[in-house]
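Submission checklist for the structure archive. All mandatory fields must be present; incomplete records are returned to the submitter.

[x] Identifier: CCC domain-containing protein
[x] Organism: Henosepilachna vigintioctopunctata
[x] Residue count: 166
[x] Sequence attached
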Amino acid sequence: MLILMSLLLIAMVHHGRFSPVVSYDKRVRYEEYTIEHEISATQAKNAALTIDLSSVRLTHGCQSCSNEELRYCAGTDLINDHCCCDKRFSESLPFIPHTCYSGTVLCKPIVEDCEEYYRRKACCCDKFSLQFWKKKWMEKSTQNSSSNQFNINLLLLYIYFLIYFL
């Protein structure tokens, strides 16, 4: 039986079914990306908590924003378009943690074009996304301080029991 299995395995390798040669598609090109800029969570939190909402001014000629535009402002599409359209000119979203990459392939914005991104950003996203992230960072700070208070109380209770039972 062992001889039969060995012959079967040799026949399969010989006919190319289990070839050790790895084939790949030579037409596939691999793109190498470099980090253009990056905002860490700590940097974003510090920026969000220090920027005053009243300092953000709406551009003249802006209409009210639709729900779809506000979803765009709160989602990852805004960051994608920021990385595609802003390109080292200035960091206009310092309160959102993100990393932008650059490569040789031209990117395409999620909205129609970069002009639409600039319009949405100025009319809808600047104030809304700052408000959104400021609230998010404040909630995380509150959760961390309440969990720290819980840990302190737990530690005090542990010390009390050690003293009482020793």
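[x] Structure attached
Curator remark: Residues 31-135 form one domain. The radius of gyration is 28 Å.
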